[in-house]
């Protein structure tokens, strides 16, 4: 072995070390979490797969694999799903450790429903 090859194997002990990000989900947990969110949002019926195919434009077999937690959607498909599915959005936020955003989103939704209810009460009282 030449000296240049030996030098390539040596690594500096100085500099930055990358610490593992503790809030990241284990690789095997992510597909399961997304599959659960898809089943909660779209159901576990054959029509659900076709609906997700229409949303994402992904291959039907790939979408079936998402529902069965064999693998997870790509970034582009995940973004499309998060745009259409509250369950998928909340699951990804939960896995990212962003419970604060989940609570904010739910609070905003509750306020909107309360406004609708108050408007209905006003209509009943005046009508």
Helix content: 55-70%
Number of strands: 0
Rg (CA only) = 23 Å
Helix/sheet category? mainly alpha
CATH class: Mainly Alpha
Mean pLDDT: 83
Low-confidence stretches: 16-21
**How many strands, which pairing sense, and closed or not: the largest β-sheet?**
none
Question: Notable features of this structure?
Answer:
127 residues, mainly alpha, 434 Repressor (Amino-terminal Domain), 69% helix, elongated
Write the layout of secondary structure elements.
Elements: H1 3-9, H2 29-42, H3 46-56, H4 60-67, H5 75-84, H6 86-95, H7 99-126
Helix pairs in contact: 2-6, 3-4, 5-6
Describe this structure in words.
This protein has 127 residues and is mostly helical. The chain has a single domain (25-121), classed as 434 Repressor (Amino-terminal Domain), CATH 1.10.260. Helix content is 69%, strand content 0%. It contains seven helices and no strands. Helix 2 (29-42) runs antiparallel to helix 6 (86-95) and helix 5 crosses helix 6. It starts with a helix and ends with a helix. 13% of the residues are buried.
Précis, in short:
The protein is mainly alpha-helical and 127 residues long.
């Amino acid at each position: 072995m030449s000296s240049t090859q030996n030098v390539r194997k040596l690594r500096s002990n100085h500099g930055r070390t990358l610490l593992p990000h503790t809030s990241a989900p284990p690789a095997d947990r992510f597909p399961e979490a997304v599959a659960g969110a898809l089943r909660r949002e779209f159901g576990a019926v054959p029509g659900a797969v076709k609906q997700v195919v229409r949303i994402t434009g992904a291959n039907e077999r790939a979408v079936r694999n998402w529902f069965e937690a064999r693998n997870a959607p790509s970034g582009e498909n995940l973004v499309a799903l998060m745009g259409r599915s509250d369950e998928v959005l909340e699951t990804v936020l939960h896995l990212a450790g962003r419970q604060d955003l989940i609570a904010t989103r739910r609070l905003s939704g509750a306020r909107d429903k309360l406004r609708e209810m108050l408007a209905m009460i006003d209509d009943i009282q005046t009508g």
